[in-house]
Design brief:
By secondary structure, this protein is mostly helical. The protein has three domains: about 50 residues; about 80 residues; about 160 residues, hpI Integrase, Chain A, CATH 1.10.443. About 45% of the residues lie in helices and about 10% in strands. The chain has 13 helices and six strands. The strands form two sheets. It has a three-stranded antiparallel β-sheet with strand order 1-2-3, covered by helices on one side. Strands 4-5-6 form a three-stranded antiparallel β-sheet. The longest helix has 20 residues. The chain starts with a strand and ends in a 5-residue tail after the last helix.
């Protein structure tokens, strides 16, 4: 609302809007004052006025995190994991600071603290929702944040990508240990991962409606990159899936946490320590190349949108090239 008052020889205009810093200006002519007042009110109606930075003194980082967790994260497929990450972060003293006090140095200190307990790759995943939180607060929630404090925080150089492959006899030991699991889904989940290269999350979301036995294909509706794909199945993979007892709409009605715990018990029984479940995806994709599949064919199955991401799996291809070079007759 604009207020115009006569102060001496000038007309003073003051515009106040909730959440914005009061704006004022003086004019010698009343019509100029009225025109400026109308212009500012139009700008305010369009949301183009600068926000009052004093608003940041009234909101803590924790309140912002809670709002993001309860209104944004809840709509994500990975909500269960992100909720755990954000709820744990809320216990940190940094969340008790007001937004006006938060800077890149605070998150740099937090980074150094966390890196004593976790890997840079894990911290990068923890920072992802926080970085998005500040962008959303500035662009959609109208908070007068001058910058994203996390954007300027550098993480240490990422560790080399894992290229762990199964050693001779390891798959057999894992399968034997999985047979003794009380939950009969563990073994077929492991076999499905090795035969298809699917991620754990993709496997656990599979539904019987996604399985086409006639065409030996499987529809992956909710992949990591949000691009559904249909993959071919070997006879062994098809037999594994149809060997699972149908008790619900999902092929594998088990939670991610329950499977993680079961996987850890399987590894403990075998004595294998340096093996992640995701390594089975690496194993499967490497086997695809060893079978002679081309990069586009492997990408169709694995879901990689950028073929360059498959270069880390090309060791089998390099070995075939060497064999071809060795077999090439050389002219004297």
């Amino acid at each position: 609302m604009a207020t115009i008052r006569k102060r001496g020889a000038k007309w003073q205009v003051q515009v106040r809007r909730v959440g914005h810093r009061p704006l004022s200006r003086s004019f010698h002519i009343l019509k100029d004052a009225e025109a400026w007042a109308r212009h500012i009110e139009v700008q305010a109606d369009r949301g183009k006025l600068p926000r009052d930075p004093r608003v940041l003194n009234t909101i803590t980082l924790g309140e912002l995190v809670e709002r993001y967790r309860d209104s944004v994260s809840v709509r994500k497929r990975g909500y269960d994991v992100e909720r755990i990450v954000l709820t744990a972060f809320l216990r940190h003293a940094l969340c008790r600071k007001r937004l006006s006090e938060i800077g890149a140095d605070d998150f740099a200190s937090y980074r150094d603290e966390r890196l004593k307990a976790i890997k840079p790759s894990t911290l990068k995943r923890e920072f992802a929702p926080l970085r998005n939180l500040f962008e959303l607060a500035r662009d959609e929630w109208g908070l007068p944040l001058q910058e994203n404090p996390i954007a300027k925080v550098r993480l240490r150089a990422s560790q080399p990508r894992r290229e762990r492959r199964l050693k001779p006899g390891e798959l057999e030991r894992i399968c034997e240990a999985a047979k003794s699991c009380r939950n009969r889904l563990i073994l077929p989940i492991i076999l499905t991962a090795v035969s298809t290269g699917m991620r754990r999350s993709e496997i656990l979301r599979l539904r019987w409606d996604d399985l086409d036995g006639t065409n030996r294909s499987l529809l992956i509706r909710h992949p990591k990159n949000n691009q559904p794909r249909t993959i071919p199945l070997t006879k062994a993979a098809l037999a594994t899936l149809f060997g699972v007892e149908a008790t619900s709409g999902r092929i594998f009605p088990i939670t991610a946490n329950a499977f993680r715990l079961a996987w850890d018990r399987v590894k403990a029984r075998t004595g294998i320590t340096d093996l992640h479940f995701h390594d089975l995806r690496h194993e499967a994709i490497s086997r695809f190349f060893e079978l002679g599949l081309s990069v586009p064919e492997v990408a169709l199955i694995s879901g990689h949108r950028d073929a360059r991401m498959l270069f880390r799996y090309t060791h089998p291809v390099r070995m075939r090239i060497i064999d071809k070079l060795d077999a090439t007759p050389h002219k004297s």
